[in-house]
Structure formats: structure tokens, C-alpha cells
Amino acid sequence: MIPRYSRAEMTKIWEPENRFRIWFEIEAHACDALAEIGVIPKDSARIIWEKGDIPYTPARSARIDEIEAETKHDVIAFLTELAEHIGPESRFVHQGMTSSDVLDTCLNVQLTQAADILLADLDRVLNALEKRAFELKDVVCMGRSHGIHAEPVTMGLKFATFHAEFQRNRRRLKSAREDIATCAISGAVGTFANIDPRVEEHVAAKLGLKPEPVSTQVIPRDRHAQFFATLGVIASSVEHLAIEIRHLQRTEVREAEEYFSPGQKGSSAMPHKRNPVLTENLTGLARIVRGMVIPAMENVALWHERDISHSSVERMIGPDATVTLDFALNRLAGVVEKLVVYPEAVAKNLNQLGGLVFSQRVLLALTQAGMSREDSYKAVQRNAMKVWLESANFLDLLKADSEVAAKIPAKTLEELFDLRYHTKHVDTIFKRVFGRA
Amino acid sequence: MIPRYSRAEMTKIWEPENRFRIWFEIEAHACDALAEIGVIPKDSARIIWEKGDIPYTPARSARIDEIEAETKHDVIAFLTELAEHIGPESRFVHQGMTSSDVLDTCLNVQLTQAADILLADLDRVLNALEKRAFELKDVVCMGRSHGIHAEPVTMGLKFATFHAEFQRNRRRLKSAREDIATCAISGAVGTFANIDPRVEEHVAAKLGLKPEPVSTQVIPRDRHAQFFATLGVIASSVEHLAIEIRHLQRTEVREAEEYFSPGQKGSSAMPHKRNPVLTENLTGLARIVRGMVIPAMENVALWHERDISHSSVERMIGPDATVTLDFALNRLAGVVEKLVVYPEAVAKNLNQLGGLVFSQRVLLALTQAGMSREDSYKAVQRNAMKVWLESANFLDLLKADSEVAAKIPAKTLEELFDLRYHTKHVDTIFKRVFGRA
Amino acid sequence: MIPRYSRAEMTKIWEPENRFRIWFEIEAHACDALAEIGVIPKDSARIIWEKGDIPYTPARSARIDEIEAETKHDVIAFLTELAEHIGPESRFVHQGMTSSDVLDTCLNVQLTQAADILLADLDRVLNALEKRAFELKDVVCMGRSHGIHAEPVTMGLKFATFHAEFQRNRRRLKSAREDIATCAISGAVGTFANIDPRVEEHVAAKLGLKPEPVSTQVIPRDRHAQFFATLGVIASSVEHLAIEIRHLQRTEVREAEEYFSPGQKGSSAMPHKRNPVLTENLTGLARIVRGMVIPAMENVALWHERDISHSSVERMIGPDATVTLDFALNRLAGVVEKLVVYPEAVAKNLNQLGGLVFSQRVLLALTQAGMSREDSYKAVQRNAMKVWLESANFLDLLKADSEVAAKIPAKTLEELFDLRYHTKHVDTIFKRVFGRA
Amino acid sequence: MIPRYSRAEMTKIWEPENRFRIWFEIEAHACDALAEIGVIPKDSARIIWEKGDIPYTPARSARIDEIEAETKHDVIAFLTELAEHIGPESRFVHQGMTSSDVLDTCLNVQLTQAADILLADLDRVLNALEKRAFELKDVVCMGRSHGIHAEPVTMGLKFATFHAEFQRNRRRLKSAREDIATCAISGAVGTFANIDPRVEEHVAAKLGLKPEPVSTQVIPRDRHAQFFATLGVIASSVEHLAIEIRHLQRTEVREAEEYFSPGQKGSSAMPHKRNPVLTENLTGLARIVRGMVIPAMENVALWHERDISHSSVERMIGPDATVTLDFALNRLAGVVEKLVVYPEAVAKNLNQLGGLVFSQRVLLALTQAGMSREDSYKAVQRNAMKVWLESANFLDLLKADSEVAAKIPAKTLEELFDLRYHTKHVDTIFKRVFGRA
């Protein structure tokens, strides 16, 4: 997480002030429940809110840090500072709880906050993809497998494909959000020995979480592993779309281009350059987010009822993965929204192979005319290879091929070379993806 | 995937004969649909089933390999061999389809088959965990955080915790199974130019899959990334439980032990050894499965409408990840089922720290008796540190501490040292995890 | 490791018969040393060689497996089978040693054998790259940054670049080979309590290894982590070159092409296709090898004097990483050796941007003629952007630009548009890389 | 990289001011060389140093950021700001160079600076390990394989083992440092078209680097991949030692303990806790550093002569990996230096298994007394298993075993139970590791 690749909305989640605020809410809600079941005085709970419900400022954070420098324990430092505001009633705060109750529940609140932003990001990406998909639905372009011209598709189909992929990612993220939206207030080693389970239920409800069915002082880390793994999958989809755009922008293809603002410089040495730097950047950011998946999985196997090895990992990947992915999704949405498409280049590339893209249709026509599949394949390939090697026109070659001509008259052959043949089901696909066409 | 860590049921899925069988079914079902919509003769579809529906044997696989050696194309080799059995009607097979239609749909069938076995494996693990959890529900044992004695839990709670974790894994795997249970029969670059979408719908229904909303010659690989990532999470949970058992078996703890069969040798040099080799093995297998997550994610960003870089990865991790995880889950279930628990050792360890584990309860009692949290903490820690350093008895020290004694009478202090205090909510937790206690 | 991506020479290293042979040599050499220092009778050592030095066959391997099924211990099974051949003297075999002495030393022998093959593979790649580099040294082609035309380079330079990269990889692999070329015969927990250090020295010398300075029953796994990490770096270079070729082959570029054999089929559906399937395959294989780096690193932190979690990992990644990389390097060498280069396409692409590639030279000329760098940049960019947008001729535009014309006369401008300007240091670079030009 | 896990010395390397300073030096040294070979006026080069050699301050960094916000190009922003100080001579700065010349050479300077700190860190770790190794050389303790008591070692041997491991890491890091200590000043696409190779040689010499033999606008990223992979291996060794200490500190073992300062709090809830939080933290930090290895490897395959996908990755992992590892190594050194060892606990654990640890020696004595290895193993194991199950005394059982007694008289048996037998080669090992004993 570096400022260059960060958006304020997401970084705020990871600032100390947000963390301390969540800690306070956990403690104060817990006090309410403790008061309700008669463990602490109701007045004390009220006073804790009254005196404690004040904003966390950098100054307060600094004070907490100062205390932690001595105690070497962050939650105790937090409680000590809080006591300075609350006074004697502070002795009822954190009653029966253990640090992990606060830390783990807080982390899950932060991750759900982050997930909500990421879901909104995905919506922005989805909206951009949908808009471009419909706008470009009928712009026929070359489809490529292995980087080699294959058969025609449309530019809109490309965007529809990514829309479907990001829809899946949205679904996965929602599911991953559920996975980490739990609350544990179960005390040391998770037995509720010193805290009634009703406290957990109350705090969970207040924070929009579900009680963790069984916690062992910590909320189990398979939840977080699944969460970060899901971010890794989404990052891989970001890379997928970024690489598509990088390919489309390369000089020899140049069917599309990232928006290049006036005043922008492509290269310090070569003033003529217009580089797909945003999507290249996204490719790198995807690697970063993916690199956090394995550490998150290595965090699962904590020792016995807990160890704290996960903590340093999460202090880094918690912010890093969410902030970086948030930035990446927004950058991606911007790229899609403003992507410049060059229809002339699209058309030019489409015709580059002199009709070779119709080879399958000719193959099928030959088999339907009674030629064996093997013979049909050989006949078509024989002529196709000449196009590659001699830049000949495919249709002319086929007409001149006696074996082919014996099966398909020239007129029929000509009719096979028709782009509309390839786009006739675009609406079907759009309906599947968007529910409309 | 090596025989040592494989079970036949899972390896069979990845044998050529199963693959070719699935390919045949895809092609033959497609022919039915093509016949139904009038593209090929109904009689031809019938004959294709009649003549083609014969078992794939190693001999047939060898024949296909032979053809592939020449054509360098596996699906064409398959079709050529099939034609040797079907005769002239074979020209209707694969009509309008592309290799990826067959390969990708087949891979997804294999992955759903594998997922079904893994789900059954998880059920075996869950059953074993549930059985042991109830059996050991009330065996009080030491709970440990940071490897240090904390407060009592029960052995049954440990198993309940893992049960909840594996329940989550089961849910995740079901969801991952849905993610890869799709079928694509959309032809080159996925436009349905040469094949009617109804064919895809028919084949999907017959194979228990859903049609892929939009495929670009390939089924999008974010689906597979999510699938393998989920296997990585499950593997991490395997490691989690394995490490718990390794800890419990270490000589100084020895609360539990992997079953050690008569005739088994622990060490070639040291005849006295009884080593937790199965769970150590599981720790390693988890690393292996996890190592396949990133390659699967790197597969997502295929170029344009497809490239084939994913193929070599999947030829290895498809079998390797599923076979290894299947083996690991079964080994794990066996370890849990037969784990030997030593209640005497459990009890001995529980008492090792001379009552220190009640430190929190004393802390709470002091605060409730009116001492500030800070002072209470200091009082308890002061006496606790003496126990660590001088192996003194904690209760005796507390009684002798004038500040403590001033707040809590000796009798009350003694009553605080009660294990039942820590187990009173075990039933609550069991009900949350198992729905019963 | 699957047959499809394996070469026999490398797979042989990992067959049981090679492993057992190495085990025998370790044991027999150890007996020689034990006899030499008087621990066992010299005659016994002689007899062990005489009766034991017989080939390991699949039949013997099967017998060993059979014994292991009972003892659940592979080295004991091996020793038991060996005793069936050697008779009573077998009681002197393995004296004072522990299984790990045999297993770990053997693994390192296998890894050095594998490293030797990989070094030879790298030599084949290097030779191919050098040959093509010199052959294509002067074929001027477009250099591209960000996929965008930048300035001219030569095809030979591309190969020289990869040659330098693979030279580095060769050096790294040699260094990694040294890292794992050690021998440990130090007995249980590595104290030499039951075996004299001179035995280790003797066996090490015989097997071409160095004695491990200190082993703790196992040879420390940081050595193996470094080894597999190095394979991961080499795999990444394979991917690097593979992706370069995939780019050069894409239809719109098509400056080079993998050799396409007669009879080969590019696509079952589209007979016209010629796909870079080998380099796509290499891209995937690189992911696989890279996926083994983290598991190898996770193996380092074994518990205390050893645990066996590394073993299952190494049983898989030992063969998988070396066999896959060996296959990949050979495939890569073949691709480079036979790569078809199309000079006409190279030339055509070079001219595609109407002279824009000379923009930097014009920029420099303007600054040298006294214009500020900022103004020069603006002047050049202003004209360059017109070329992008209007496909105009860059030189013509510059001549017509009054500000530019005021600084550089038309004649001089024309002279700046000279490819030789860009290739004048090719020989310098070749001398640096190859020691000759 | 977060403040909590950072040391100022290392973070300074990654601050903008250090980066800009290095950029300036590269540019200014290049000007010297350009002046020397007559491309620019000698006076200009002198003035560039005179006016430009002023400290980079946060204020200057802010000004550069401001310019970058408009130009969207960091090097151009830097040059523009520099021009504000240098005046008209600034037009000679960056002549013939491309941004990557500056950026990549700078990154390598930063990485060598970081490597130098890390080498010093390793020295601190090595010193601590050596000191403790000698101090504890003769403290006999239990050696454990699989977490199970095996045979005696000494505490000093443990530290010697890690010393050898960190010696190897030091060697690897030196080698990795060499790998990234290169300088590229080769201009756009690396052809030296606009810049004489002598400039590169001059700048390299001034900065303590070697000229990159062939660069393609960028310094090839296999160098960086190897560098970060090496950091990953070192991090794994950190984890290795951390886990050893965590095991030694667990309550049931407690042979050693991290230093616990007065005023420190182990747990907010349980005042009695003394947790190995530093080594747990190190375990997590190791995961983080390791997570950056694969992204660095994915950076290798840049497109054609360069793309910029590596940049975002390196902006994050450059600082993160070096800062985190630097912090971890220093924390580790501190833990080792201050580690509290408890000799009584060491001795107690050593005797825990009632002499079982001598089982191998008895086994060998039996074989030397003429019993077959198989029978000896069974005799020893038979008695050993009784010790496990009935907590009997191993020596007594052996004496009472008629088969054993028939081979070894009671007196001789007693003599076998001697710890010095296990430590007789400690000096040999120390000499191998430290060159002295």
C-alpha cells in the first residue's frame, strides 16, 4: 500500500483512528450487554458511552502509541488511554474479554467495510463494461486464438465476456464477505468462561456481523484465507482485461487505446510514444495482490488455540490487498470507460488474412456436400497454407481448386464469405449475460 | 500425483479412458441435438451411439496416441480413431464444434467428478471429527495460546472447532464445484456461428452442467482459479489439524498419538521412536496443493479469445491437486478416527503450572472487589511471575499477598480455582456447531 | 511430471532403481570406511560389495515395496531386501547411520544428476541462441516498449539479450548445484555419536559431494529452497523468451513463427490456423515450475532436529520441477533452433509508423541546435501525434513545421532518418555478450 | 512496509529524497562522461554539478510531484524541477538517455544499498549465534526428530546449525547483490543509438556497479527475480530459527524463553502469560517476504524490449521486502542475543523418557554382540514400547530381558547409558562451522 496506488476512501479504513473507533464500539456495546445481564452496573455502561464516545484523533493515537511503547501490548494501551477519558468506570471495560475478541472482531469489521467498497468498485467496472458492450455490440472484429486470427467476433462480445467474468467475481466477493463477517467475544481460549455468550450475540448484531460459532481465542483464519484468495482471483481478472487492452493497443493491432490526455508524455526520450501504461500498471498490481494469497493461507495453521504469527501478515496484507485492489478496480473502470476504439483499424485487421477466417465454414460446407471430414480438412488447409505463404486470396484459391469446385459452386462459395454468419447469435449471448440484447 | 499419495477412485478420473469416454459422450449428445434441430440425419446420430458407445480401453488410448503423434492434435486424433469404429457417419461428429468445446467441457466434468469425491472425503473427515468431539467433549485439557498454557478447554472442543472449519470448507467446495460445472459448445471463438446454442443446452443438461453464458472458445479460467484456490484453503485446514496433532504428540506433551500399528518401525536407528509421520506427511501435502493456487490464477489472463498456456498447467494440477487432496483428506480422516488420546497426560499437563491458568479469574474477582484493572493486573502478574521463576504454588502466593488478601478472603480464592468454571459453555458451543450437545 | 512433458534421461533419475542404486552405494561406501577405521571387518565390507553390487530391477523394487507395506519404513525395507542378497554380513550395513543419512544424501545425488542435465540443457539453449543471434545480427527490426513501436533494434540483438539472460541462469544453476552437492552421514540427530565423521568424508568423496558441515539428522533445507528457487527463476526466463516469440508470431506482427511441420493441424475447426502452441505450452510449464518454489521454501522450517514434512513435498517437486524444466528447456532450444523468421514482415513493420521511430533523434538534434529540451519535446510530440491520428508522414510534417525548420534544415532532417544510426553499436553489444562480434 | 516493522536506516533508502539524489548523480556523472567525449560542453557538466548538487528535501520532492501530476511522467518531472535550479545548462542533462536508464540504475543502487544493510544484519545474527553457540556448547539437551525425543545433542550445536545456515544465506545474498549491481545507460531500446557506451561505463564505475552487458531499455528482471528469491530463502531461515525458539518456549518444554522485560504484559486477560511473541511475529514476517518472490518472478517476462508492468510491483516489493527482512533480521538477532536458557528444564527434559534415548546404542551393542539387526531391533523396540506405555525404566527392563541379558551383561548395559558418548564430536562440528572449537 503506497499513496501512488491508493484511494482515500479505502485507506481510511486502515488508519489507526478507524481501528480505535471500532475497538471502542466493540467494548462499549459489550458493556451494554454486560449491563443488561447484570454483570456490570447499567449506569457504568451509560457513562462509558457518554464519556468515551468521542472521536479518535491522531493526538489520541499518539497517546496510545506512547503507552504501548511501555506495555508492549496494543489493546492494553488502548484501554489505558480510554480510561483516561472515562475515569473509574473504565474498570468495567473489557471485562471477561481477551485482546483477540477486540482485534479479530475489528479486523472483520474492517474487512467487511473494505469488501463493501470493493463491491461498489466491481459495480463501477460492471457498469463500464456493460455500457461499452452495448455501444460496441455490432462492431465486428477479428477473434483470435493463440494470437492468430481465427474467426470474427464483435468488440461488444469482448466486453460482454468480461462482464460475465466480473459478475462472477462480484458473486465470489459477496460470498467471501460473508465468510469474514463474524464476531467473536468468547474470552481467553474461546470458552466463554468469563463472558456470557449473549454479549457476543449483542455485539455481533450491533456491528452487522454473525457470532462465530466456535472461536479459539481467535476467529479461525480459514475465513481470511478464503477472503484473500478471492481477492487474488479478482486481481487475476483485472490482469486478464488489462492484457486484452494492452494487446489491442500494440502498434500493429491498435484497435483500441487508453485515453491519452493532452499534456501527457509517453516517453522522456521518444516524444512519439502513446503507451498503455495504465493497463501495464494493472498487470503489475494484479501480481502484488496475488502474492498475498499464499501468506494468507499459511496463516490458517495457527498453533493450538492461537498464536500471533498471523498478525504481522494481516497488518500488511489487510491494507495492502484491499487498497491495491480498490485502486486497481477504479483504474480499470476508468480505462474501460474512456477507452478509445478505432473502428477503421478494427476493420482493417479483420480483412488482413484475405478471407482465411472463413476456412471453417468452407470445411463444414464441404462435409455437408458429402466430402469426408479428413478430405475436407486437407482441401481447406492446402489452400489456406498458400494464403499464409503467398498472401494469395483465399476465395480465389478455393474457386480454382478442382476438388473443392466439384463440391461447391463458385457462387455458393462466395456466399460463405459473409460476416453476418458469425454475428447471428450475438443477441443470444447478450441476453444470457445482461438479460437483454 | 504419485502412486504413494493417490487413491484409485480419484486417479481413475484422470486416466485417458475416462477422458475419452467423456469426449465421446459430449460428441454423441451433441449429435443428438444436431439431429433434433435437423442439421444432421437422425439416423446418423443413432448410429453414432450404436457403433461408438463401446468402452475405451488402454488399447484404444494407444491407437489415439499413435494418431496424435502424426497430427500433433489430440482431439483430431480422438475423432480419427472414433471414425474407425463408426464409419461414414463419423463425418457428422464434431460438426461446428471446436476442440475446446470438447476439452473444456470434459475438464469441467472431470473436476465435478473430483469435487464429488472430495465432498465425500470431507464428509468422512466431518464424521470422524464429530464422533471424536462428542466422545471427548468433557475431557478437560489445557488450552494454549502462543504455545503457552492459557486456560482450560476440552479435547472435544478442539474437535468441534475443526468440525466448524471443515463445514465451512465443505460449503466452499460446493460453491467452487458450481463454479466449474459449466459446459461450452459454442464453436470457434465462441460465437455459435457454426453450431446452434441449443446443442450446448442439450449437452449441458445431459452432463449435469450449466451452459456457459459466454465462452470465447474457452471456458473462462477465473472459474478454475477459484476452484483451485478453494482446494488451497482446504489444504491449509488439513495442515491446521495436522499441526495440532503433531503438537499434541510431541514427547513433552503427548496428550494424543497417531495410531501406531504392531510391526511398524518409527526409526531405523532408534527403536524407541513413535513419530507423528502421518500428520507430518499431511503438512507437506498441504504445501503441495497450495503451490498450485498461483499457477491456476496465472492461467486466467489468456490472450484474446484464448491461448493454450493454461493447458499444460491443468494437465498437471488437475490431477495433482485433486488426487493429492483426496489422499490427504482420507489420511486425515483415518488419523482422526484412530487417534489415541491419553487422559492421564492431559490431566498432568493441565496441572503443570500450579494453578496459573486461573489468573484471569482472579484478576476479574479483584476488579469486581473494587481494585482498579491496572492494580489488579499488577497484583496478579506479580504473583504469577513468581510461579514461573520459582515453581511456587499460585494459590498459596495469592493468599500470602496482603493486597490480594485485603480484597478476597482465602476461602473465596480457593473457590475460584475450579475447572468447571471453564467448561460451563461447552454445550452452548456444541449446539452452535453440531445443532446438538 | 507427466509423460507428455518428460524426457527419459531425466525421468530415469527419479525411478526407484536409480534411487536404490544410490542408496546401495552410500551404504557400501560407508562400509568401506567403517572397515578402514576398524569398526567392521574388512572382509565384510568386501562381501557387501561382492554380493550387493547387482543391478536394481523393477522386480527388486517390487520386493522392497512389499516389505515396506509391512514395516511402513522405506529404508528398513531396502535394508531387509538387501540382506536377502548379502546374507549375514548385512548386519554391518547401515551401522550407526540413520535413514536420513541415506535419504538426504541420495536426494542430493539425484539433484546434482538433475542439475547436470539441466546445465547441458542450458548449453543447448545457449548454443541455439548464439547461432541465431549471429545469423540475424544485422536484420534491423522494430524495437518495442509497452508493445508500441519505439526505435529500431536488430533481430540478432533480441537473441543476444536472451543469451546473456541464460548465461546468468547457467551461472545461477551452477551455484545452486553447489548448494545441494553435500553429503550427510552423521547418524541420528547429526551428532556422529554412532558413526565416525571419517565415514561421511569418505562417502562424500566417492560420490562427488562435500560433507555437510553440520547436519541435524537432515541436510538443512535452505539448500533445497535455494535450488528450487533458482529453477523458478530459470522457468521465468523460459516464459520470457516464449512470450517474445508468441508476440512475434501473432498475425498482425508475424515476424517469426514456430516451425510448423507438414501434417500438423493447427485447429480441428479452422484449417487455416498456425498457432505458437509450443511457446504457449512453455508459458504454462513455467507457471508449474514456479509453483514449486514456495513449497520448497516452506520446507525450510523443519521442527527441531528434523521432521518429515519436507519429504512428501520433495517426492513430488523433486521429479516434477526437474523433469518439467528439462523438458521445457529442450522444447525451447528446439523452438529457437527452428524458428522461422520473415524478413519481409520485419521490414514492413519497421516502416509502419512512417518514420516516427526517429522522433528521439530529431528531439536531440533540436536541443543541440539550441532549442530548450521542453520546447524540443513539444515540437516533436506535436508532429508525432499527427502521425498517430492522421497517418501522416513524420518527415514531411517536420519539414513543414516552421519552428523545427528554423532550427534544422530539410536536408539535415532527412539525414536523421537513417537506420544505421541505430545499429552502430550492435558489435559492441555482441562483444560484451559473446566475446566476439 | 509499515512503521511497526521498519528500521529508519532501511526506510531512508526508499524515501523520495534518496531516489532523487541517486537520479541526480546518474545524470550528473553521465554529463561528465558526455563532456569528456565531447558531446556536451565541459563547462556545462561543471555547472550541472555546481548548481545541481544540492540536497533533495521534502519540499523539492513536493515540487516534483506537482509537475508529475501534469506530465504524468516521473523522470520528466524530475528533470523539469532540476532545470529550475540549473538553468539553461539543463538542456544537456539526460541527453540521449531514456527514463529507464535512470530508473533502473537507481533501483539497482537502492537494492545494493539495501543488500549492504542486510549483509550487516546477517553479520549481527551470525555474531549472536556464534556467541550463544560457544556459550552453550556443552549444555547437553534432548535432540528431537518428529517432535519426539531422539538422542542427546547440545544447545550449542543448535546454534551452530543455524550459524551454518545463515553463513550460507550470507553467501547467497552476496551473490544476489552482485546480480543486481549493474548499470544501464543505453538509451531507448538499449541500442546506444543516442548515447555512447562509454557514458555507461563511467557512470557504472562512479556508482560501484558493473555495466549491464545488454539491456533492452530495461535492466533484465531475471536479476531482480533472483534477488527477491534469495530474500525469500533468507526469510525462510528466519522462520526456521523462530519456530525452533517457539518450540523451546512452549510451556511443556520451556528450555528457553524470549527475554521478557519488566513492565511487559503477556495478555490483557491472563496476567500470567509469557509468550514468544517476537518469534511468532518473525514467523509472520517470513510469510510476507516469501509472498513477494512469485511477483518478482512474474516480472521477468516483460514484453519485447520492455513494458512497465514490473514497476508497480517493484515500487511495493522493493521497499517491503528489504525493510521487512531488515527488521526481521534485527529482531531475530536481538532475540538470540537475549534468549534466556533454562539449564534445569533442559536437564529435566533430557531425562524424561527414562533412558529411551540410548535405544540406538543398545541396538548397536546387540548387533556387535552377534545378534542380527532384525532381532536386535525387535528386542530393543519391545522394551522401549513398554517405557512409552508403562513409564517403566528402560535400563531396568533391558537388564530383565533374558534375550538381551544373554548378549550384554548388566554392567556393560549401564555403561552404554552415557551422555558423553553423544557429545564426543561436538568439537569436530564446531571446527567445521566456526573454524575453531
From TrEMBL, chains A, B, C, D:
One of its GO terms (molecular function) is N6-(1,2-dicarboxyethyl)AMP AMP-lyase (fumarate-forming) activity. The keyword Lyase applies. Pfam families: ADSL_C, Lyase_1. The keyword Repeat does not apply. Pathway: Purine metabolism; AMP biosynthesis via de novo pathway; AMP from IMP: step 2/2; Purine metabolism; IMP biosynthesis via de novo pathway; 5-amino-1-(5-phospho-D-ribosyl)imidazole-4-carboxamide from 5-amino-1-(5-phospho-D-ribosyl)imidazole-4-carboxylate: step 2/2. It comes from the Bacteria. InterPro entries: AdenyloSucc_lyase_C, Fumarase/histidase_N, Fumarate_lyase_CS, Fumarate_lyase_fam, Fumarate_lyase_N, L-Aspartase-like, Pur_lyase. GO terms for biological process: 'de novo' AMP biosynthetic process; 'de novo' IMP biosynthetic process. It catalyses: N(6)-(1,2-dicarboxyethyl)-AMP = fumarate + AMP; (2S)-2-[5-amino-1-(5-phospho-beta-D-ribosyl)imidazole-4-carboxamido]succinate = 5-amino-1-(5-phospho-beta-D-ribosyl)imidazole-4-carboxamide + fumarate. Keywords: Lyase, Purine biosynthesis. SMART domains: ADSL_C. Residues 354-434 form the Adenylosuccinate lyase C-terminal domain. Its EC number is 4.3.2.2. It is an enzyme of class 4 (lyase). One of its GO terms (cellular component) is cytosol. Belongs to the lyase 1 family. Adenylosuccinate lyase subfamily. This is Adenylosuccinate lyase.
